[in-house]
Amino acid sequence: MYAQMIKTASNSVKSRDEMSPEEAAFQDKIDNDIKIEPRDWMPEDYRRTLIRQIGQHAHSEVVGQLPEGNWITRAPTLERKMILLAKVQDEAGHGLYLYSAAETLGVSRDEMVEMLHEGRMKYSSIFNYPTLNWADIGAVGWLVDGAAIVNQVALQRTSYGPYSRAMIRICKEESFHARQGYHAIMKMAFGTPEQKKMAQDAVNRLWFPAIMMFGPNDSESTHSEQSMAWKIKVKSNDELRQQFVDQTVPQIEYLGLDLPDPGIKWNEERGHYDFSDPDWSEFFNVIKGNGPCNVDRMNARVKAWEDGQWVRDGLMEHARKRATRKVAAE
Amino acid sequence: MKNEWPLWEIFIRGQHGMSHRHVGSLHAPDADMAIKNARDVYTRRNEGVSIWVVEAKHISATAPGEKGPLFEPSESKVYRHPTFFDIPEEVGHM
């Protein structure tokens, strides 16, 4: 979801008879919930799929700072500003944990960053939507981070040790993000009629993009099978989406806001809420690069990377000089 | 890649009296910056009272293939555990 549409490097799941002894031993470990660690043998496709998935997840954390960073200077109170600063700083940390996890698979962070900038890697579609006003910041924390939590809680059980540990650490911090967002929206939903209207508008606009975060319907999601067999993915897109809808609808009702989708209805038989499918053509269009903010987001990332180049180089040169001087003195 | 900052492994002492524990890694040009970055990344919520940083290339590790020869021998040495020895109740706590 923070990693969407990850193509598994191989097309079909191998049967036991087709597996080499190494592959069979590897699958046994996965089936017995023994974590795979960086230096363990792993199929090349497992490694490549993970680099793509963890890398995309890391990029999403970093690009995700942009729509929220946008509002730091305009937060309505000093307290909200400090909270938002802390949250955006957390996202940088989450990016770092994930880049580190991906690096254990033999790719460097700088390489991943360059792949993102060259369009060879992606980030979550959700960050290509704008944050138009303060209500959006509340809604992003509550809905977007809320959706992320649903996915990331499942991923704590993923088979790759470093990824799983990064998820555990991230989940601990993420619930602060969702709660501060809901708290900000509560303030508006229970505030003046104008504020309530803003809260409603933010929920209406962000609902479908949020439920799209889980990726296409299982029936359309062609590359999940191998990822599920390898426990790179633990739950299917539709399972996670349903879980998110079920937990979020009562939260919307508590706020006294209208449901953003007329199709939301409790289904006694299923024990779940029914809801409408988002417009998937919009999703694919945003993924392709045609969302409202794709160009701005990429430009901002590339600019930050290029503007910071001399600082990174300078610090490295300084470190080299100091090391040489130290050797000379000894 | 040119001028890529080296990788550092980060160890944090969570509380006084506890040992330092590996918490993760990060990139930094030198040890001073690694400590500064570790403070920002890994101790934002009272997680630590002390930080160690070690450049990742200086860490040597056992190979996964050596797991059997290295660690299996201790599995059969049950007499190394106090519970192996039955001490009569009359002797009291030991």
TrEMBL record, chain A:
InterPro entries: Aromatic_CoA_ox/epox, Ferritin-like, Ferritin-like_SF, PaaA, PaaA_PaaC. Pfam families: PaaA_PaaC (PF05138). It comes from the Bacteria. SUPFAM superfamilies: Ferritin-like (SSF47240). GO terms for biological process: phenylacetate catabolic process. GO terms for molecular function: phenylacetyl-CoA 1,2-epoxidase activity. GO terms for cellular component: cytosol. Residues 1-25 are annotated as: Disordered. Transmembrane segments: none annotated. This is Ring-1,2-phenylacetyl-CoA epoxidase subunit PaaA. It comes from Shimia aestuarii.
Automatic annotation (TrEMBL), chain B:
InterPro entries: PaaB, PaaB_sf. It holds the Pfam family PaaB. It comes from the Bacteria. NCBIfam families: PA_CoA_Oxy2 (TIGR02157). This is Ring-1,2-phenylacetyl-CoA epoxidase subunit PaaB.
